[in-house]
């Protein structure tokens, strides 16, 4: 080895030692040489990791191992000695799973958008007849402008799709054209084969001039058809009518509910005997000796005979971007147009003999009428025959084990999947404390409930609570009587600590002018060098402490520099709260109204206008814009703020913006963050330069605990009181994990301060302590007050989630209490569910939290964990969200953008292969991908909605099933969550009011009833307070519904109401969430069909008392148990109908997997222990000779 090679080897060893020292605290050169030798013997990442594990090395983070391997391999001198890293693994994966490395295609959505203006111009210039026909079909956009006298009409939405179909049926069309050319003289090229055949038949009939055959008269009426009829007699429950125009004499019943859309008290008010009417046959009953017909007049236009509720027709294939009013039916497996539109009756189980006897006695005693019996047929107006009832057969559903063809057998690896590892040491003290906290939270909740019940039991009972409760489902209610004004009721129902905060004052505000405040920020001194750096470089990495002004000032600097001449200035934020609050502040500084020159866009809310030049938005909204504009042509500069948080949308934007930067050299890209691995980001973005903004930092003293804390919430509160009673003035910042913990901490702190301050006056008086919460769901009026200084002689403590690490800057903080935990979303690919898990933070996040204490002056950071835990139990940096979350939505959007080569997509940190396979399998099960792994038309439309794939399919299928009006409301209500609230002093009354809305079909229909009742009460705010419904959430759901309705109108999707046929809504839910099906377990709860997990219906659900056999849920929530949220009853046959590629009917001759996993318990006396009957449990008599 020559001298240069030795020098390079020593330099490599030093670099490896530096990396190991920074991450592990190891500075041994021998260990570094061992790592280098192992990496050279094992060239790929998997082999390197396995070799280290076999040699006894501790488990290291994958990002650290990949960094070491890349460093070692890049230092090799000779080309032949270069070691392959991930490329070898990618080649192997590409050979196994070619679906992950398919060539990219052009963005079809962007192409479609270009055709829309041309299509609209053609519609305006088209003749009247063509405009009428365009309502039923859309014109071909690929051949527009040629042969205007012979416009080509195609059932394809794009030229690519037309060519694809033409390849499949090329020979058939050629033969068809030859046949048609013999019978016709003029040109008919590019016409639809089905329509040609129809026209050919019509012209052939006209040439033969044969006499037209008389139409056959039907023997009996057919269901769904309209006939002339004559009223024969009137009864209390309807009218009997004779059906005309058929051979046999048939009478049918028009039930009183089918006479008119308005409420009818007496049939004589609507019809008279002998009157001629038009009726529609809605039901035919063949069960008895004589056929019975159920008729309807309200579904027929009595003047023209038009069908007012027609059965939906199958979609033609000539829709472009949803111009057609129907869906692409053949994208749905085994589609049956008749099955989706027929009104199926609810499954009826035979009543037992005691139940029939009870109903008979109640009817005889006048307690109920025959119309209130469960076997009353509203359509026929008679009691059903018991022979018609189902015998309650036990339907067995099993999973289809076949996998998509594009996964080629690798989909079964999901069975062996486990959640991504986000905890460095699962057996450490911090991991154990996180697990313990859930049990402690449960104990606190139970204690609160017990105290509330004791207080409620001591209150005098004046009269029945239900006497003043009005029916919330009534459509036309009179004026609602209010016991007190709504605002007073709301304040009275707030907890005491929050009412106390509403009454406190604030300290002296900052009297500096807006200009002086801007000039006092650290970034102002670097304004000119920063602008020069942005102009000189296409991509710039900006690193600056929180509060330096980079988020609010840089966008304004760019406007002043003239960068808005070529487009807008866009700035992304990872959170909605940050996007809205920053936009308000910048609009105030810029001197304009919010929504004009400065605006923001978040999910379901767009506050921008045509004059907007500075646009703040969440990263998800910019990702959605890239669907239609991959090159970001409307922006001249895009700033990715808070990039260190590495959300899944931010990581995808990194790759997309790199591609856009290559295509548009004039596009400026700025990546900003408070804590950023600047070198890693610079290498990723083509070696972009790094611009440092020094912050106003002061020294911070860091204090650790000597022993681990088991209850970090209680330890944090004790630390706050210790600081308040012993430390100099200065505000306190406490980091907790979520809203429940923060509200509990504020309440406990308020109670403890009351006890401490009791009886102390004068010099012994304890200063007041104000506890302010900070989390995403905080009301806007309270969000603005957390930035106000505390009054003189008062200390402020801010209890916040990790949003206060970097997104918010609160002045006056001198003390930080860091328990060391955060709530992260972790995806389990085995159960295909996301869950929020409390985990230890990373070392980078801990350092960032400590820095919050040194912004105003020298401060202290109290870390409620040991120094050893900081070193050994925390990861150096947090795991990127893209490696621990569900990728179905992300991959659907990438597929919609034409990115099929997922393996070579430029991720900064590639997601796990197993997670991508699981996501592709989910999309295939939802019919968003075909058997080749390509996006279907249904999948492309799903990508258009800002919803998760299952929810988007639920909404789209509602159009097909004729219930989009109801489903729009349900989706909006599910999106906002937490519609009901339960005040601690009125929990029973709130539960009673909520029960008035309960629907037997499930919770989504309950939410629909709440919204409709609110709507029928003229969106009354007082109605919300009386029924314990959050008016803020209802207003937000109203905004969400309007936006979704706008998207459906844009794509010309028909929005119809299903009326009282709620089974259509249940079917729509089943079509989207069939994976979340569960069957009742004989022992306890329910078992999911996918993985056999035991789950439960929550006590607040409308189905808690019913416990139906089969249900479908929206998501699982883990509290004391695994509870199902938004549960709906379903028929098991619907699972097979809407998911034939996922479910199949079980073999009756074999024992199903579900029954194999069931535990059979023997019968026992319910008053004794379950196993008391066993011989082993019987106490043996001991022989005593002395007795």
UniProtKB/TrEMBL annotation:
GO cellular component: catalytic step 2 spliceosome
Signal sequence, start to end: none
SMART domains documented for this protein: DEXDc, HA2, HELICc, S1
Catalysed reactions listed for this entry: ATP + H2O = ADP + phosphate + H(+)
Span of domain S1 motif: 224-298
Composition-biased stretches (Basic residues): 204-215
Region feature Disordered, mapped onto this chain: 122-218, 332-351, 441-495
GO biological process: feminization of hermaphroditic germ-line; spliceosomal complex disassembly
Cellular localization per UniProt: Nucleus
Main location: nucleus
Pfam name, any one: DEAD
EC number of this enzyme: 3.6.4.13
Alphabetical keyword list: ATP-binding, Helicase, Hydrolase, mRNA processing, mRNA splicing, Nucleotide-binding, Nucleus
Composition-biased stretches (Basic and acidic residues): 122-132, 184-203, 441-459
TM segment ranges: none
Sequence similarity: Belongs to the DEAD box helicase family. DEAH subfamily. DDX8/PRP22 sub-subfamily.
Protein's recorded name: RNA helicase
